[in-house]
Amino acid sequence: MSDLAIATEGLSRRYGRVLAVEDLRLQVRRGEIYGFLGANGAGKTTTMLMLLGIVAPDRGAIRLFGRDLAGEPLALKRQVGAVSENQYLYPGMTTVEYLRFFADLYHVYDPRRRIGQVLDVVGLSARAGAEARTLSRGLQQKLGLARALLHDPPLLVLDEPISGLDPLGVREVRQILLHENARGKTIFLSSHVLSEIERIAHRVGVLVDGRLVADGTLADLRGRLEAMMTLELERANDDVVAALAALPCVGDVRAHGSRLHVTTVGGGDHRADVSGAVGRAGGVIVGMNTKGSSLEDAFVALAAPAHSSGSGRSDQDDRPAPACPRAARVTVAETAASGTRRVSRRSTGRWRARATGVIAWRELTALRRSPVPAVALGVALVGAAVASRSVAAGVSAGGVVAGPSPLYVPLFIAVLVLTAVLAFVSATSVARERESGTLETLFYGPVDVTAFVTGKFAGLVVVYLALCPVVALALLALASLTSLRVGPDLLLGVLLSTFAAAHTIAFGLALGALCASVRSAVMVLVAVAWVTLAVHGAAAILAALPAGGGAATAVAATFDSANRALSLVSPYAHLDWAVQAARIGDLIGFAVAVLASLACIAGLLAAALLGLRWRGAHRS
Ligand SMILES: Nc1ncnc2c1ncn2[C@@H]1O[C@H](COP(=O)(O)OP(=O)(O)OP(=O)(O)O)[C@@H](O)[C@H]1O
Ligand SMILES: [Mg+2]
Predict the structure, then answer these.
(1) Which among 339, 388, 419, 460 is placed 20 to 30 Å from 108, CA to CA?
(2) Nearest Cα residue to atom 12 of ligand 1
């Protein structure tokens, strides 16, 4: 069993021209609190996102508890609790519902009791029923910590966990972290509040422009700094200044009357060397003051831009880090970690299946509360009613209607409305999740792109299946009101419309995954709808016109070809083909139509997966 909770080797990540993290070798031992420091933009968050499997490294390897993160990402992510710089919360979810969602994802035993416990730990019990988004920034930060603690993971990765907290909150979080560390948790945290890091961290690493320039205990870091010494002499002279300047441990000497300000370098206690040199040069020391350096001094010295170019990367390698001072008292660690190990034996497939189910359920519950399905259903049924009236009028006037069942047209209208709304919902929900950051938080848990896409897809298809019986009953009611005949292809149409729904939902997911924002997803969706309608309409109009000469025929042929090409990938064309083929008993035609629909669904889901991988779950 590896004694390292986190080990990275050669980790690098570039965003365009910015090299955010470069060749990072990080080693965090089990049971220690490791402070990850760096100026703004140094690469801390990027590193943490790579440790959480959210940002993919360009190069390098990550091992958590000795296991390769790339090899078993979901099981390993279950062993990590993460808090990000900002909390991204779902709209309309209470504090308890938020935690329950993650408890289900993490497969927490007895979630109600555990949620009560963690709310108690972070002091949020009184706000259990509050909408999470309405909590103040500091309280949201505490809610994030509660989420990270929910599944009692052996490793906490905390990106600025105390930013936004009041002094009492900072103290509470400090106590929680120390308590969790005493229980055996390894804590990897970044913070700009150096006094807090100084209080709780066993070791610190300093990142400068993506490179780890220092890694060791606080004493190590301080020891590497220059220290300022002030000497009060009976009488200062040039010999004394020269003697001091010649010492290897002295970097600089400045005289101010009988006072000398001496800067020593390399750490350590140089008082004896200094007083010896002064004595040999004939000086007499009457007072000596040394000023030690704080973590802030160390940080400023290491992270200041002037030092960044000169700081050797080898610093981290040639300095053996001292033993973690509290590692020895890590006794409960094995208990806490072993509980998680037991759960984490689940395979990636089982974690994925679980996440898919939880995400699908969340999609269903979110839409249950939303007015969108009811409004869509209302519009669909009004459209179907209007269509059935005009069809009924056509029938009574002795006209011809499409298909054997006159109700086929109203059904088609209802399906068109419902599926278009579902395409819109799926496209905007994926884009919104990325834009609002909830996707990033979701991916802290044992969730991957496949689970996310299939979960959303399954949830939305189930929503459609739930709406289908209402549509079928409404059509039967319309049939009795208008005396239109109910043909066998009506039921078939209702059943096959599920393929059209799945097709449009998959299209929406792919669009949402590929687009950078909700706005662009909506714009592309509207553009696709317009182009499709325009091509379809133009082809129909041109076909109905009397045959003209040369150019007009070419235009009509072009639109006809474009319309046929669109039909090959249109969910509504597939639905129509399948129903018409079934009506005339053409089994091959029916199978081809269904297979074409399935192929499109599979292709679009694959595009959604690739799109999400390409764009990433990281809030952009
Ligand atoms: N999604 C992104 N696209 C482009 N550049 C990015 C992206 N995320 C981070 N960067 C860049 O990568 C570098 C490292 O950023 P990162 O957020 O990791 O720094 P940080 O140390 O966490 O900073 P801070 O202390 O301000 O949180 C910065 O130059 C940043 O501008
Ligand atoms: Mg950051």
Answers:
(1) 460
(2) 20
Q: Determine the distance separating the centroid of ligand 2 and the alpha carbon of 79, expressed in angstroms.
A: 22
pLDDT digits (tens, 9 = 90+) for 4-15: 999 999 999 999
The verdict on 167 and 132 lying in the same domain is yes
Say whether both 416 and 370 belong to one domain.
yes
CA 591 remoteness from chain centre = 40
Instruction: Kindly list the distances between the CA atom of residue 570 and the CA atoms of 454, 567, 588, in Å, as whole numbers in the listed order.
Output: 21, 5, 19
User: How far apart, in Å, are the Cα atoms of 419 and each of 182, 499, 502, 591?
Assistant: 54, 10, 8, 22
d(CA 440, CA 49): 9
The one-letter code for the residue type at 29 is: R
Kindly report, residue by residue over 379-417, the tens digit of the pLDDT. Answer: 988 888 888 777 777 666 655 444 556 777 888 889 999
- For the CA of 49, the nearest atom of ligand 1: 18
Measure the CA–CA gap between 438 and 518, rounded to whole angstroms. Answer: 14
Are residues 472 and 365 part of one domain? yes
Q: How far is the CA of 124 from the centre of ligand 2 (A)?
A: 25
Q: Which domain holds residue 278?
A: 226-292
| Ligand 1 center–CA 145 separation, angstroms | 22
Residues 607 and 466 occupy one common structural domain = yes
Where residue 322 falls among pLDDT bands split at 50, 70, 90? very low
Is the Cβ–Cβ distance between 20 and 211 less than 8 Å?
no
Ligand 1 pocket residue status of 45, Cβ below 6 Å = yes
Q: Which ligand 1 atom sits closest to the C-alpha of 47?
A: 18
CATH number (domain holding residue 245): 3.30.70.100
Q: Is residue 68 part of a domain?
A: no
**Residue 192, CB-side half-sphere exposure with 13 Å CA sphere:** 9
Please indicate, yes or no, if residue 5 is contained in any of the structural domains: no
Q: Is residue 85 over pLDDT 80? A: yes
- Phi, then psi, of 94 in degrees rounded to 5: -80, 170
What atom in ligand 1 is closest to the CA of residue 620?
1
- Count of the separate structural domains present in the chain: 3
In this structure, are residues 92 and 369 in contact, taking their beta carbons and an 8 Å threshold? yes
Q: Is the pLDDT of residue 143 over 80?
A: yes
**Nearest atom (ligand 1) to Cα of 616:** 1
Q: Are 160 and 207 members of one domain? A: yes
Q: Which of 11, 12, 45 gets mutated to test ligand 1 (max ligand atoms within 8 A of its CB)?
A: 45
- Ligand 1: residue of 17, 37, 44, 52 to mutate (most ligand atoms within 8 A of CB) is 44
Distance CA 232, CA 284 (A): 9
Q: What pLDDT score does 587 carry? A: 92
- Taking the CA of residue 38 as reference, the ligand 1 atom at the shortest distance is 21
Q: How much is the pLDDT for 227?
A: 66
Neighbours of 294 (CB within 10 A): 16
Distance of alpha carbon 390 from its chain centroid, rounded? Answer: 50
Strand order in the sheet with 186-190: 80-83, 155-159, 186-190, 33-38, 203-208, 211-217
Q: Ligand 1 in contact with 18 (CB < 6 A)? A: yes
Nearest CA to ligand 1 atom 5: 15
461 lines ligand 1 (CB under 6 A): no
507 part of a folded domain: yes
Q: If you measure from the C-alpha of residue 506 to the centroid of ligand 1, how many angstroms do you get, rounded to a whole number?
A: 32
Task: Please report where in the chains the tokens 């969108």 appear, as a residue.
Answer: 372
Residue with tokens 């049924």: 381
